[in-house]
């Protein structure tokens, strides 16, 4: 069993990642730490509480962390104005959660993991502010982190947020630089691989028909916040970026990647751009390059549909 912390800014695809983790016996979710990103911190925290609460897992703590990026001006996602998910889409289970700060939780958990000799994995699926702060404030926590699995960056693919940059790196490039330079082994899922798998109306129907409460909520979210863009993606359907980090821990055979030294452009008109040297065999970062699309989609849909289903 892989013990993980999910650091997140929910976010529709973040919700799918959290539900996939909760639906996977291969994974023990130690806590969910939230960061400002797609929406402001209050909303990512409220959403994370509701996502976890809807799966009936009040034992999994949710913590709020950084309210904004380390240095740059704050940017939010496309649906920032909506704030937290409408309750008609993701009902509020009334779950109250921990008031420990996210950065303190990451540090405390990693320190404990180092002491026990059972390092934890961090799945970072929002801007990297919390993870960078934990590593900067408490460098010794690196010893308790087995690996950081990051959804972020874009190499050959066009960036989403700007032609140059993917959102999570764009929103806090300094934090991304700190995490990538930390020496902790990193597996990175850039847009190049996440855009290879598109979820269509058929998959949404499957979630709705067979789903327990989380599957039905995900179907409502995917319908309300339509992610498809045939012009951009060349075919019907929309991506779910963040669950790839979890799917890789559960079924690594669905993916392939290559070691690379990764850098981040910080500042200027191309801020947030990531670049990779695939010839550096000493590199500690693995950049994922390919996914088995049907295998990935089936894993996400089947497991989330089964979560809490009768
Ligand atoms: C990333 O940005 C966010 O909008 C998504 O949740 C994902 O983490 C994709 O660029
Ligand atoms: Ca996210």
Question: Any chance you could write out the topology, listing elements then pairs?
Answer:
Layout: E1 2-8, H1 12-22, E2 27-34, H2 41-54, E3 62-64, H3 102-116, E4 120-124, H4 129-137, E5 145-151, H5 167-171, H6 173-180, E6 186-189, H7 191-194, H8 201-210, H9 213-224, H10 230-233, H11 243-250, E7 255-259, E8 261-264, E9 274-277, E10 285-291, H12 293-306
Parallel strand pairs: 1-2, 1-4, 2-3, 4-5, 5-6, 6-10
Antiparallel strand pairs: 7-10, 8-9
Helix pairs in contact: 1-2, 1-9, 1-11, 3-4, 4-6, 8-9, 8-12, 9-12
Bound molecules: beta-D-ribofuranose (BDR) and calcium ion (CA).
Beta-D-ribofuranose is lined by residues 11, 13-14, 38, 77, 125-126, 151, 160, 166-168, 241-242.
InterPro entries: Inosine/uridine_hydrolase_dom (IPR001910), IUNH (IPR023186), Ribo_hydro-like (IPR036452)
Organism: Salipiger bermudensis (strain DSM 26914 / JCM 13377 / KCTC 12554 / HTCC2601)
Domain Inosine/uridine-preferring nucleoside hydrolase: 4-296
Helix content range: 25-40%
Order of helices and strands: EHEHEHEHEHHEHHHHHEEEEH
Strand content: 15-25%
Largest sheet: 8 strands, mixed
Q: How far from one another are the termini?
A: 25 Å
Helix and strand content put the structural class at alpha/beta
Q: What low-confidence regions span 5 or more consecutive residues with pLDDT below 50?
A: none
Average pLDDT works out at 96
Instruction: List cofactors, ions and other ligands.
Output: beta-D-ribofuranose, calcium ion
Shape: globular
Please tell me how large the radius of gyration is: 18 Å
Sheet with most strands: strand arrangement? 3-2-1-4-5-6-10-7
**How many strands in all?**
10
Number of helices in the DSSP assignment: 12
């Amino acid at each position: 069993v892989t013990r993980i912390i999910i650091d997140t800014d929910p976010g529709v695809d973040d919700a799918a990642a959290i539900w996939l983790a909760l639906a996977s016996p291969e994974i023990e979710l130690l806590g969910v730490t939230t960061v400002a990103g797609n929406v402001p911190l209050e909303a990512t925290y409220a959403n994370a509480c509701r996502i976890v609460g809807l799966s009936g897992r009040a034992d999994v703590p949710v913590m709020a962390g950084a309210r904004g990026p380390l240095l740059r001006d704050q940017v939010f996602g496309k649906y920032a104005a909506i704030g937290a998910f409408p309750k008609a889409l993701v009902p509020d289970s009334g779950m109250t959660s921990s008031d420990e700060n996210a950065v303190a939780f990451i540090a405390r958990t990693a320190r404990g993991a180092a002491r026990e000799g059972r390092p934890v994995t961090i799945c970072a699926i929002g801007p990297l502010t919390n993870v960078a702060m934990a590593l900067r404030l408490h460098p010794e926590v690196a010893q308790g982190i087995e690996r950081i699995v990051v959804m972020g960056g874009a190499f050959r693919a066009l960036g989403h947020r700007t032609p140059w940059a993917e959102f999570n790196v764009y929103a806090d490039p300094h934090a991304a630089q700190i995490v990538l330079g930390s020496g902790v082994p990193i597996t990175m899922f850039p847009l190049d691989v996440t855009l290879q798998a598109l979820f269509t109306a058929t998959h949404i129907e499957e979630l709705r028909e067979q789903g327990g409460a989380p599957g039905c909520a995900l179907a409502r979210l995917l319908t309300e916040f339509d992610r498809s863009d045939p012009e951009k993606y060349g075919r019907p359907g929309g991506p779910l970026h963040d669950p790839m980090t979890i799917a890789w821990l559960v079924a690594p055979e669905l993916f392939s990647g290559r070691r690379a030294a990764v850098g981040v452009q910080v500042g200027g008109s191309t801020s947030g751009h990531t670049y990779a040297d695939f010839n550096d065999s000493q590199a500690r970062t693995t950049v994922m390059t390919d996914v088995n699309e049907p295998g990935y989609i089936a894993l996400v849909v089947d497991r989330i549909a089964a979560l809490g289903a009768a």
